[in-house]
Amino acid sequence: MSLSFDPNSLTLPQGHYIGGTYVAAHEGMTLYRPSDAVAFADCPIADAALVDQAVQTAKQALKTSGWGTLRPRERTKILQRWADLIEQHGETLAKLEAVASTRPVGHLIAGDIAVTAEQIRFFAEFADKEGSDLVPTDGNSLGMIMTEPYGVVGAITPWNFPLSMAGWKLGPALAAGNAVVLKPSEMTPFATLYMTELAEKAGLPAGLINIVLGDGPTTGNALTGHPDIAKVSFTGSTGAGSAIMANIARTGVKPMTLELGGKSPQVVFADADLDQTADAIARSILGNAGQACVAGSRVIVQDSVADELTARLIARMTVIRPGPTWDELTDYAPIISERQIARMSSIVEASKAAGAECLLGGERLERPGYFYAPTLLGNVTENSPAVREEIFGPVLTIQSFHDEAEALALADHPTYGLAAGLFTRDLSRAIRLTQALQAGTVWVNRYSRSRDHILPTGGYKQSGIGKDLGREAYQANRKSKSVLISL
Fold it and tell me: Is the same domain home to 56 and 126?
């Protein structure tokens, strides 16, 4: 059965979702489909009063349901049923996400839907396996470290991978016994709303997840600064993360997890398998048209093989199938908005003016919607805008080095440290450089996450605070209390 669909045939969820029902909302901002630039929906903007309603609903649901003190295995079972429903309703979720986002429907079915369900199951299993600890003290006392939920978690997810990012936030927070008020990106809210409906069909008490729609300055600020939000979890740009920190500081102190921007290097040594390396690099920058925080946008290659690798990259980056996200044959995504296309073009042009050589692309594709050609820039320096700034698009820079010391110097970015790639057959070199690279994730002879959700993700420097995924994400949603009992 074909996954392709008519984008005008969908019935979209309307309004905010609070306490298990849709709340009527006034029109807010107009949404445009990235695939054809057609206006197709409105996203309301929740004000402080509506955000407060969602937070108070979450507090009350947490209290009346006893979710935080429920037998842990019962939380696990409900979350597992939710994961089952996500898979069963995968086609509906994929269509709701594809119509508004940059994610092709075929990619959603093959990857995002299954990954989101796996993430929910992964975190569900922590509910009855992670708990308090007895710790060694002297013989006349008993020491314990007890953990408990924070209460209501405020979460904000980005537009580039709406479903899986919602899974990153909701899975660990709910498994740990919290309620969540979540603001999806104002550009891609629909699949997240439907996924929340499925959670309640699985048995999650109504009000434990509340979805408020809106922008960052109004809705996001009201959510992160709300006094009854006990913890904040955010994925997005470094600038937005800094604004959230400042907003929290104005209204109090609370823990936060921030997964922010990146400008990640891919370091290639002469002994690497160049075909395997070119495949991995091309996938990393062409996937979702480079709209990923971990996109490996800076290639740093040993000078003796720089020309060979460049030729291989050009060959792979030329073969693309752009198309609307509702066509199952599409494998090259649009850019999210006209604004992002303009920003990308300005950085590429500024880099060319500073001396960069455009080896491939560097222009908008002539077709409906917001599509930008895969782009490769050579002859760049560390001061080039394309090297320094996070572009969030299919733009790759290439620099060469002679030895390990120079490779590490070029890889080190003054601002970001989210991820890094390393390609070499030399095991000793791989271990040395893995230890030296300033990044929260290092991939060796690959450049992509796997479905091993036990591996946490998070950045160094201004690429973030704390970790998503892994045991660390679950633990970050519970606070600890030290207890010492005299015997």
Answer: yes
